[in-house]
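Input record (one chain):
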Amino acid sequence: MTTADSSGAHPRFADALRELGLDDLHTRIRRFPDATRTAAEAAAAIGCELSEICKSLIFAADGVPVLVLMDGASRVDVERVRRELGAGKVTRAQADVVREATGYAIGGVPPFGHRTKTRVLADRSLLAHDVVWAAAGNPHAVFPMEPKDLIAHAGATLVDVREPAS
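The corresponding structure, as predicted from the sequence alone:
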């Protein structure tokens, strides 16, 4: 098992920060003794609104992994993702597919720094905040970033793929 660096980030994510010129982000990573696997756990630990969490979710579009970045208070509308990608079928990826595609376990997947290059969609709802918090490669560490910067570093396409409020 790979261990986190001194900032609490997964080593692969720490390497990605260096490669992206984001070394200063190491000092802003926050590590928590309790897991922050879910958006609710992360928001409670940080003391922020649920919608200020950026979830990194892997879906399979016609069997190909796709990353969707979504605010923590919303759910992904799989049909909207399917239409956005022009795919025949979109499903939530299984845990082994998530780990294979990203190099991280569910609950700790960051928005960038993945093992493989995947298509990335970012829901426009993330832009409603000055700062969002995302996983730093493990279920105990998160980092803050301005949404527009996070979306740019993830190489994401800005879309509207959240489920409508009911």
